[in-house]
Specification:
Blueprint: H1 7-62, H2 67-70, H3 75-82, H4 87-104, E1 108-113, E2 118-121, H5 139-145, E3 150-155, E4 162-171, E5 177-185, H6 188-196, E6 200-204, E7 210-213, H7 228-237, E8 250-257, E9 260-265, E10 279-285, E11 292-298, H8 300-430, H9 433-461, E12 470-471, H10 472-482, H11 484-490, E13 493-499, E14 502-503, H12 507-525, E15 532-540, E16 543-550, H13 557-560, H14 580-590, E17 594-598, E18 606-612, E19 620-622
Parallel strand pairs: 13-15
Antiparallel strand pairs: 1-2, 1-5, 3-4, 4-5, 6-7, 6-11, 8-9, 9-10, 10-11, 12-14, 13-19, 15-16, 16-18, 17-18
Bound molecules: adenosine-5'-diphosphate (ADP).
Amino acid sequence: MPFTVKPRSTTRLLLPLLLLLPVFACGYVAFIASEQAGIDRLAETGERQLELNARAVESEISKYIYLPSLLELDDGIRRLLNAPDDLEQQRQVNRYLQGLNERGGSLAVYVLDRAGQVVATSNWLAPDSYMGEDLSFRPYYQEAIAGLPGRFYGIGSTRGEAGYYLAHGLADAQGHIYGVAVVKVRLDTLEERWSRAQVKAYISDENGVIILSSDPAMRLKSLRPLSLATRERLANSQQYSWWRLDELRLRARDSLGDGLEQVRYDSGLPDPVASDVDYLSQSLQLDDTPWHLTLLTPLQEVRRNALSNAMLAAAACALLIVLLIVWNQRRKVITTRLDAREALERANRELELRIDVRTADLCATNERLKAEIRERLQAEQTLRMAQDELVRAGKLAVIGQMSTNLAHEINQPLAALRTLSANAVRFLQRGAIDTASANLESISELVDRVGKITGSLRAFARGTDDTGHAQLHTAIETSLLMLHPRLETVRPLIERDYDQVELPIDQTRLEQILVNLIANALDAVREQQAPRLWLTGRQRGDEYAVEVRDNGPGVPPQARDHLFELFYTTKPGDAGLGLGLTLSASLAAAANGTLTVTHPPEGGAAFVLTLPRSTQCSSPDSRAS
Ligand code: ADP
């Protein structure tokens, strides 16, 4: 897989480098400009200093320039040169030269004969006196004897002392040269002066050899390679005695124009400590000599200043860049914030718009819901009214149904009452008091029974609410009493197994439910050979279940889903209205209970009324037969 760099990360890598670039560029430009300005300043100062020093050298030399020629005026010297063996004359001249030398402050003053031999000298008393020495090999002698001004810097062949030789050919009135006068001048005072003034300078002669230097290490070093011929010539003249004249090696040399040079000397030179220092080198040709005065100004300070300026410029540039970056970042942040605010405002506007739309929708939905609620309430009201109507209708139906039976039921006792009362009257007339009283008892019982029947009916028809309490066994008793005529007809075996409990339902409503259930059970078992009814009650958790079971044919499967539907009946003709179960279920629900049907495997149907438990139960009170 080829290595790829994402443009973004490349930019991230390059960015710091790109930012560093102007910093370095600034620093570099500042360094170059500052260095150039520093060099220019140094060059200007150096030029003045060079001029001053050159004049100082020239004046040092010019102090003695006439001295040799003055000796031409001295007769004693001329006499000595004409008669070299005159020892007295020689002593006088020696003394004269000695005095001259001491007063002039030169190194030595001496006179050579035409052959180049020293005939008189200021140091005639010194053990290493020049006296008698043959100096004809010295160039200054050769120049002077030829009538030219002898100028020569060299190291003394006797004492090895460096000095500047000024020679003059002593000539008589006819121009005939009869000897040479020489003054050896000390120039090392210049070096001392340079050292005191902390000036780095040197003087190089016509051979390119450094003859005077503020730095002793540079002394008698050649600035350029010396050819073999030159070396031989120098050896012959013993100008530099036996010095090796090593070449002063430069590590670097750059021309800066206008006679300016930047030089760096090899280690150890000129100053071991500052061997790595670059110098600004300025040279000037001295008057009256073939010498060059060179001034060396260290560039260390200039460089240091340039470096400081460069660092300052780089820092300023970096600061500027940082400020620019900060400004840019701030601008970006502000732009981003403005964008974000704008986006937020836009989103807000959109949101408000949506909210408006949604609010309108919600309002419409709300209105719809309100309308629906109103409709539902209306429907509920209608339903409740229908339910009430149903209850009333159910009651009326039951009452209607019962009234027939009731009439039959009451008619029978009434007929019996009529017969019994007539018989009682007759028995009383006959004086059969016992029989008459027995008849009256029967009459009383029959009246009680009729009273009970009508009482139940009244209670059934009375308006009720859902908050009453019912005694289960009373309700069962009342129901059975109300259904007495039909029980008499069907004569089922009734098994009773329930508790004496109080249930949270109106007494009449419970009786109404039980009358419906038992009446249906009686209808179901009417055709059975051995009709049976089970009336049971069981505690089931927090509820109490009352079951009315029969051994009739049961509910046919196709009818099972419709039992609790209004007006559903399987009974022929006027026998059924299809109200009983619907009404009973509705009454049970109103009392927070349920009415369900089960189909026992052994046959028949079992209707179970479940109601919440209200009071403690006791042991079963009865078992019907
Ligand atoms: P109705 O008695 O006037 O028909 P109900 O609502 O009381 O109305 O009863 C509806 C129907 O439920 C009855 O027609 C009958 O088919 C069926 N049913 C009710 N109780 C029993 C039962 N114990 N055994 C068999 N079928 C029953």
